[in-house]
Amino acid sequence: MAFENLWQTEYNQAYIAGMRPVFNRRAIYTDTTAEYVTPAEPSAYEPVTIRIRTAKNNVDSVYLIHRGQRHLMWKEESTEDFDFYAYELELDDEKVSYHFELRTGHIVGYFDVRGLVQEVNEYYDFVIIPGFKTPDWAKGAVMYQIYVDRFCNGDPSNDVLTDEYCYINEPVHRVEDWYAYPAQMDVRNFYGGDLQGVLDKLDYLEDLGVEVIYFNPLFVSPSNHKYDIQDYDYIDPHLGKIVDEKGDLLPQGQKENRFATKYINRVTNKANLEASNELFIKVVEEAHKRGMRVILDGVFNHCGSFNKWMDKERIYEDAEGYEKGAYVSADSPYRGYFDFREDYKWPYNNTYDGWWGHDTLPKLNYEASKDLYNYVLEIGRKWVSAPYNADGWRLDVAADLGHSQSFNHRFWHDFRKAVKEANPDAIVLAEHYGNTRDWLQGDEWDTVMNYDAFMEPVTWFLTGMEKHSDDFREDLLGNAESFWGAMRHHNASFTTPSWQVAMNELSNHDHSRFLTRTNHKVGRTNTMGPEAANHDVNKAVFREAVIMQMTWIGAPTIYYGDEVGLCGFTDPDSRRTFPWGREDQELLQFHKDLIRLRKENVELKTGSIKPVDSDYNVLVYGRFNRENQCVIAINNNNHPVTRELSVWELGTPKTGKMKVILQSNNTGYSLEGAEYEIHTGKITIELPPTSGTILKYTEE
User: Does the pLDDT of residue 19 top 60, yes or no?
Assistant: First the structure.
């Protein structure tokens, strides 16, 4: 890195001039984990002790720089290799940002999130937010994302039937072959996965090691993806339970859903809706019995044209117990929920604002309706409260919700307050692309889906592919400098409580499957066909990615089927069914073993992280605390490389051993590996081609 070269130059100049050597850059370390900030999640007006580590007897003085003031730190502790400096800061109720000034003779350096630098940039300060806490259960937890229609069909009696209703002007279709590839226009095709299927597979998820289930939307919706909510108060009976079946399919050639009497009964009949909610309660109860949490998907920026508040399909117009929708009547109590451009068009006013112009996705108009605002806050409370007891929300396109950023911040502030009052241990996790800092100030979202500081840097480094498989960048493939630059920059948006619960995914429902990205094929299912997504994939590169996922800070989130080798180009091909009976058993066992190692070695869940070494196609980093140290080494070259690694900078003694506890390569993986003697704090190791290696310090 450029700043490292500058410091090495200054070091050499100082040495030549007869001065004692300046800062030992590799030894200097701090972060905002519990070892360097105590307490790690302090309350307002509480004293907090902030620490930094330097090489022993290497600096003359260290200052904490906070709000423009220099606070001299004291030497709290010395070990054989390090000095630890500390300062106790009295907090108020405002965010604390700080960096460090180090002095040795006339040489001055600064330390922030980037490491040792010559010039300060406030963006990269360390940050503590008094009173901001994230749920302990989510810190480093292994999550599992389920797109329910494609996971497991446990109850065929609730399947969407061919011709049951129309969606986007064409009849819906029940796919008879579970293993069939998704169609290019897949949104109206249903495979029958449901909550009973999830119940049936909870033992599988427990055996895998899953700690949190994240469900794509479950509420009543006409599409298979269910991001066009029809009724926020109920689980869709097609995913839940149908106890009162009556009515007919949509007649041949008919496209008006007011004649889809079977569908109308299924999704408006309170007996079916209540039975489906009861089944969800059972799912949560059974998950909790196994020590698993449950996160729901909240789609609050827009609803669907089928929604009972809009009722463009006239499904609720004559249904018992429902008010008239805003599309149907100018006198609808929901008229203010939407922005209608022409007030004289009723009945059946089609002039409402749609999200990105889609009339199937009416944009919710919170600014114009306090009733809507309060209703959605109540939905936020409802599902994390008894009897449902979900453990939090993932928020779809959260930054798009209102018509201005200031309004969005106000809404999410109120949403967080509502959810946390109902369930203080619930998580509020948002989908967001781009800089997250403004939203992660402790009073809105807890964290985000971690695209910028995980999925994208890992994908570019290991595959050179864009996350939709829409581009191949040879200049980014194996580019360690770009990788660490991206990580340093984007991680600066997180405080540690947010970072430790960030959703670290390799794949999800909106992007291509990571295993498919390893084939370097630029394309989609409509240009190359789905079969191409399976060809020329590199499982060794995928294993490298999974090793990184399971050893990085945050919550590693498996997209259903990734663990058994499921491929696919971007949406809709990434929404293939789980291949029950056709699983890649070796990949499945690989995931189980990695998850077990993550749980057995606490430093891999909540420890500090530090780069150790890097080169073209090589990344080495440490996860460590004062008691335990692990090294993770990735060699993405197709040939072996030998590296000398300075493991002492992670806190290992200068002698001892580093033992391989897992190593993957071109042929598979092993839990047995070599031991490497530490000599003067270093080990020399040969990394096999296309390999990932986890080593742990041992005294023996």
Answer: no
* Helices and strands: H and E segment counts in the chain: 15, 33
Which tokens sit at 96?
A: 């604390």
Q: Is 66 left (phi over 0), alpha (psi -120 to 50) or beta?
A: beta
What proportion of the chain, given as a percentage, has pLDDT over 70? 97
> Any residues with CB less than 8 A from the CB of 262 and at least 6 apart, and which?
161, 164, 245, 246, 247, 248, 249
Rounded Cα–Cα distance for residues 53 and 509 (Å): 42
Residue 184 pLDDT level (bands cut at 50, 70, 90): very high
pLDDT tens-digit readout, 241-256? 999 999 999 999 999 9
Q: Is the pTM of this model over 0.90?
A: yes
Considering the chain, what percentage of its residues have pLDDT values greater than 90?
Answer: 94
Query: What is the spatial distance between Cα 465 and Cα 478, in angstroms, rounded to a whole number?
Result: 11
- Which of helix, strand or coil describes residue 71? strand
C-alpha 642/C-alpha 687 separation (Å) is 6
Distance CA 681, CA 677 (A): 9
Residue 181 backbone zone (phi > 0: left; psi -120 to 50: alpha; other: beta): beta
Contact 621, 573 (CB under 8 A): no
pLDDT in tens, 148-175: 999 999 999 999 999 999 999 999 999 9
Q: Which pLDDT tens digit goes with each residue over 375-423?
A: 999 999 999 999 999 999 999 999 999 999 999 999 999 999 999 999 9
Mean pLDDT (whole number) for 77-91: 97
Nearest to 607 by CA among 636, 582, 575, 632: 632
> Three-class SS of residue 64?
strand
Q: Is 662 helix (H, G, I), strand (E, B) or coil?
A: strand
Ranges of beta strands (E only) in 314-391 are none
Output the CA torsion 334→335→337→339 (10° steps).
Answer: 160
**Helix%, strand%, coil% for the chain, nearest 5:** 30, 25, 45
CA dihedral 305, 307, 308, 312 (to 10 degrees): 10
Which three-class secondary structure string do you get for 572-629?
CHHHCCCCCCCCCHHHHHHHHHHHHHHHHCCHHHHCEEEEEEEECCEEEEEEECCCCE
Instruction: Please state whether the peptide bond connecting residue 572 to the residue before it is cis, i.e. omega within 30 degrees of 0.
Output: yes
Say which residues have a Cβ less than 8 Å from residue 600's Cβ, sequence separation at least 6: none
- Per-residue pLDDT, averaged over 340-354, amounts to 93
